[in-house]
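R.M. (postdoc): so does anyone remember the format we settled on? I'll just put the structure tokens first.
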């Protein structure tokens, strides 16, 4: 079953999201969009998780807007308050899933959603684990001492959107804070797991099926271990 639902944020406001599930008692994953918004591609990621036994909820961070081109995406992302999205929308989504049947909940996100996954690992205490895909926030926003959950991260070595040197700095930060994490680096470009990346005709995006398959295999092993 899939539907658009409403859920409460911790501040009392409401958010909407795409929920897909077969059992309310199943463990759950909050799936965070790329900078394009809550489009069909990110809903398919949620459906994939449902098909292997998870509930999945995609919070609509752009409140109904979806970008069709790069300029629009940049504009929508620039207007988004990242800390509010992590502390309110994403935390609200995690709380909703826990209050409606899931004992354990993960967060995963891609590109902009990867950056928000990093922030959620700091600001959402109800989380059980996190999977980051090629995105990180300004590193001064990452108080790694507050991270109490296991994390894995998938990174592209040839990423023009999120330079791999920033990944090295984030890794150093997590090591110093003794966070339980593992980072994987792929011989790939940005958005390598998005099967629609090549259709965008942007030079820094490139779908890589081999890297995607390996990253998803590692992700499922990690989720099954930490959620089931």
């Amino acid at each position: 079953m899939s539907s658009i639902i409403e859920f409460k944020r911790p501040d009392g406001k409401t958010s909407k999201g795409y929920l897909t599930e077969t059992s309310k008692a199943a463990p759950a994953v909050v799936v965070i969009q790329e900078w394009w918004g809550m489009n069909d591609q990110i809903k398919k990621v949620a459906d994939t998780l449902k098909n292997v036994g998870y509930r999945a909820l995609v919070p609509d961070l752009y409140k109904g807007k979806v970008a069709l081109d790069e300029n629009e995406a940049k504009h929508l992302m620039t207007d988004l308050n990242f800390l509010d999205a992590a502390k309110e929308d994403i935390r609200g989504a995690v709380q909703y899933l826990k209050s409606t049947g899931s004992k354990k909940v993960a967060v995963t996100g891609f590109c902009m959603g990867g950056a928000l996954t990093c922030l959620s690992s700091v600001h959402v205490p109800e989380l059980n684990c996190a999977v980051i895909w090629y995105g990180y926030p300004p590193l001064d926003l990452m108080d790694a001492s507050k991270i109490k959950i296991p994390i894995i991260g998938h990174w592209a070595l040839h990423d023009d959107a999120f330079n791999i040197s920033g990944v090295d700095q984030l890794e150093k930060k997590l090591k110093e804070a003794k966070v339980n994490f593992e980072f994987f680096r792929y011989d790939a470009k940005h958005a390598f797991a998005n099967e629609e990346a090549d259709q965008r005709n942007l030079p820094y995006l490139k779908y890589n099926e081999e890297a995607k398959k390996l990253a998803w295999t590692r992700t499922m092993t990690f989720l099954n271990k930490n959620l089931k």
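R.M.: ...and that's the designed sequence above, right after the tokens. Also worth knowing: The longest strand covers residues 181-189. The helical segments are 40-51, 70-79, 82-99, 112-123, 164-176, 209-227.
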